Amino acid sequence: MRVKGLKEDINGLIFDMDGLLVNSEHLYWQANIQAAKEYDLSIPEDSYLKLVGSSAKDMENFYHKYFKTIKLRDQFIKRTDELVWQWADEGKLKLRPGVQEALDFFDQNHLKMSIASSNYDEYVQKFLWVTGIRNYFSFHLSYKDVLQDKLQPKPAPDIYLLAQEKMDLAKDELLVFEDSGTGVQAAASAGLDCIMVPDLKPASENDKKHALICKDFYEVIDKIN
After folding, report:
1. b/e sequence 169-196, b meaning 16+ C-beta within 10 Å
2. Between the chain's N and C termini, which has fewer beta carbons within 10 Å?
3. Which residues contact 184 (CB under 8 A, 6 or more apart)?
4. What are the Cα distances from residue 10, in Å, to 21, 38, 180?
5. How far is CA 199 from its chain centroid?
6. Beta strands 193-196 and 12-15, pairing class
7. Chain-centroid distance, C-alpha 31
8. β-pair partners for 14
9. What is the pLDDT of residue 34?
10. Nearest CA-CA partner of 52 in 92, 18, 83
11. Is 52 helix (H, G, I), strand (E, B) or coil?
């Protein structure tokens, strides 16, 4: 497979998940807002947008700013996760535009596909089952693998390098799909070509230097020749 704007033939694809394949970033945002109201926290609603695709350090700074105790922080995180899980069961978790069509197209063209996510393993599995796309992927990596293999999280390249190793393909045969600047940087640091399909936050100038930007997966399909 060849994509306009990228130079090499592609035989394998590595996908992020949250905000890219599914609308979970939007659900997490709404869950953050609801959890903050339940715990009577004065956090501006747009503050959560800064956490989309954020690094571990950014998350730590956010929690330090808005939470007086670790217990309150942990309760907030737990409640957010509970809400997202509940909403997934209620059918609010959806594939992003063009994802189903793109996965069908890639599958018909016999491309190897995998997932490299920073989310917890149980949520990756949940989202794959709920949306019915589990069988497209030969394997998935999650935060569990980051811990087990002592990897540095995105924007470090570690998880993408592990995915490349497991796919047994050269770097110039692989293409990464991401929705956040942190993920784009991880792919670039791994030496992998990347297509960015932004979700809650638009592509930055730095993102445009390191990735081909598409508004949705329909545009991705249009660029394949």
Report:
1. beeebbbbbbbbbbbbbbbbbbebbbbb
2. C
3. 178, 194, 196, 206, 207, 210, 211
4. 20, 47, 22
5. 10
6. unpaired
7. 17
8. 114, 176
9. 95
10. 18
11. coil
Which tokens hold the place of 82?
Answer: 């509970």
Look up residue 23 and give its two tokens: 């609308």
Rounded Cα distance, 129 and 195, in Å: 25
CA dist., res. 167 & res. 190, Å (int): 14
Name the phi and psi angles at 103, rounded to 5. Answer: -65, -40
Per-residue burial over 97-136, b = 16 or more CB atoms within 10 Å of its CB, e = otherwise: ebbbebbebbeeeebbbbbbbbbebebbebbbebbebeeb
* Beta-sheet pairing, 139-141 with 174-178: unpaired
Are 194 and 175 within 8 A, CB to CB? yes
Are the beta carbons of 42 and 58 closer than 8 angstroms? no
pLDDT block averages, 10 residues each, the chain of length 225: 79 96 95 93 82 71 86 93 97 98 96 96 97 97 94 94 97 96 96 96 94 97 85
| Pairwise CA distance, residues 181 & 164, whole Å | 20
